[in-house]
Design goal:
The chain contains five helices and three strands. The protein is mostly helical and 169 residues long. The protein has a three-stranded parallel beta sheet with strand order 2-1-3.
């Protein structure tokens, strides 16, 4: 029974990677065609990029996307850093639309030298309005942070929709 479950999970994983690869290739072929048509019509507006560099960037982005696919389980982990109950300032990182807190892993690594505690939040409801998300998940997270740290200031850092949610809050 376990072999069957493992096999099914492996098949689903491989099929999803294959679909991701095919969609990525089609997207970059389309963008390359669009780039070449743009260069023909208006060469000054488009920088001259070699096909080799273009393919290299395409491959890099695919592997970054694949990494994001494998980082999804971090959505369910606690990503707090530098926890200090007496800190007067806390940083709260707010992700963008249809994303989760795992988007901030690289950024958290860069900010580890700061003495401020760093928190992340998973916004919900996913299809809710900016106002609804700010009033529900963001305000709840801020209340939890205030209870845990007794902080006086919270620095909100948002990406894309996260910036809108922070601004509305």
């Amino acid at each position: 029974m376990m072999n069957l479950i493992f096999s099914l999970v492996l098949i689903i994983l491989l099929v999803s990677i294959f679909i991701l690869l095919i969609s990525h290739v089609f997207t970059f072929v389309y963008l390359h065609i669009e780039y070449n048509i743009g260069r023909i019509n208006n060469p000054q507006a488009y920088p001259n990029i070699s096909s080799r560099l273009y393919v290299k960037n395409c491959c890099q982005e695919f592997f970054y996307m694949l990494g994001k696919f494998y980082l999804y389980p971090f959505k369910f982990m606690n990503l707090k850093t530098n926890l200090s109950a007496d800190s007067s300032t806390v940083i709260l990182l707010i992700h963008g639309y249809a994303r989760n807190q795992s988007d901030w892993l690289w950024f958290i690594k860069q900010l580890k030298t700061l003495t401020y505690p760093i928190y992340t939040v998973n916004l919900s409801p996913r299809l809710g309005s900016i106002q609804e998300i700010a009033k529900t998940s963001l305000s709840k997270k801020i209340q939890v942070i205030k209870q845990e740290t007794n902080c006086q200031h919270i620095i909100l850092v948002g990406h894309s929709m996260g910036g809108l949610v922070a601004s509305y809050y």
